[in-house]
């Protein structure tokens, strides 16, 4: 197991894992009849229970779902392929945690023109995106 971990770590540090991910996503998008570069994305979050060995300083309680642990914030394309991820304590509110995701997404994928998000992201994230990314601030 140590040997596998050592290889995985080396591939991560050298960027090989990210390269493999990107190439596989390109092939999946092509096979689905889509352009390699996505133009739309979806952002959402999910609270997950933390294992017993997770420090309390990095976990919290999601007031909406009543789950104690961490929250993963994902940006995916319309096929569900992962474009960007952030992990926070579950107590962090969605709009606050998601702010770095559009910046990271814009730096990596220039073709994204539209990002869908549910009502939990309204308010500060929509205003921030309109101001910093110079996009229209439409939301429902």
From TrEMBL:
<keyword id="KW-0472">Membrane</keyword>
<feature type="domain" description="Transposase IS4-like">
    <location>
        <begin position="38"/>
        <end position="129"/>
    </location>
</feature>
<dbReference type="InterPro" id="IPR002559">
    <property type="entry name" value="Transposase_11"/>
</dbReference>
<protein>
    <recommendedName>
        <fullName>Transposase IS4-like domain-containing protein</fullName>
    </recommendedName>
</protein>
<keyword id="KW-1133">Transmembrane helix</keyword>
<feature type="transmembrane region" description="Helical">
    <location>
        <begin position="74"/>
        <end position="93"/>
    </location>
</feature>
<dbReference type="Pfam" id="PF01609">
    <property type="entry name" value="DDE_Tnp_1"/>
</dbReference>
<feature type="transmembrane region" description="Helical">
    <location>
        <begin position="105"/>
        <end position="130"/>
    </location>
</feature>
<keyword id="KW-0812">Transmembrane</keyword>
């Amino acid at each position: 197991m140590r040997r596998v971990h050592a290889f995985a770590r080396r591939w991560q540090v050298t960027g090989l894992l990210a390269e493999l991910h990107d190439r596989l996503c390109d092939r999946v998008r092509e096979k689905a009849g889509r352009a390699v570069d996505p133009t739309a994305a979806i952002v959402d979050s999910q609270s997950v229970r933390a294992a017993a060995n997770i420090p309390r300083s990095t976990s919290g309680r999601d007031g909406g779902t009543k789950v104690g642990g961490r929250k993963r914030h994902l940006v995916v394309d319309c096929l569900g392929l992962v474009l960007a991820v952030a992990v926070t304590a579950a107590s962090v509110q969605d709009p606050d945690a998601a702010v770095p995701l559009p910046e990271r997404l814009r730096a990596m994928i220039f073709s994204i023109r539209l990002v869908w998000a549910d009502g939990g992201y309204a308010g500060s994230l929509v205003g921030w995106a309109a101001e910093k990314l110079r996009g229209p601030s439409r939301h429902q």
